[in-house]
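Deliverable D4.2, example record:
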Amino acid sequence: MSDTYAVVAVLVTAAVTWSLRALPFAALAPLRASATVRYLSTRMPAGVMVILVVYCLRDLPLTESRAVAPTAALAVTVGLHLWRRNALLSILAGTAVHVALAGAVFAH
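Output generated by the structure prediction step:
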């Protein structure tokens, strides 16, 4: 009896796992041709980045010295991205500026 139970449990687990992995592909297939999805795929990355910036900087007091690093990093990231249009370069440079300035401000 226990061997049958184990086999059935493994088969049910395999079926559920396979179904859960296949379901997103089956559900997304009709959406690929949707005009709304195409529109969102072009607009969402910038929108998400704006939301993240606002969320991260919303409580930052601009009159304190700890605001220098994030503000300068944001300026470098935006400026470099507008100039070079390379997201990886912009993010890496902004991160490097933030790390360098945050280390210099908090070292004192």
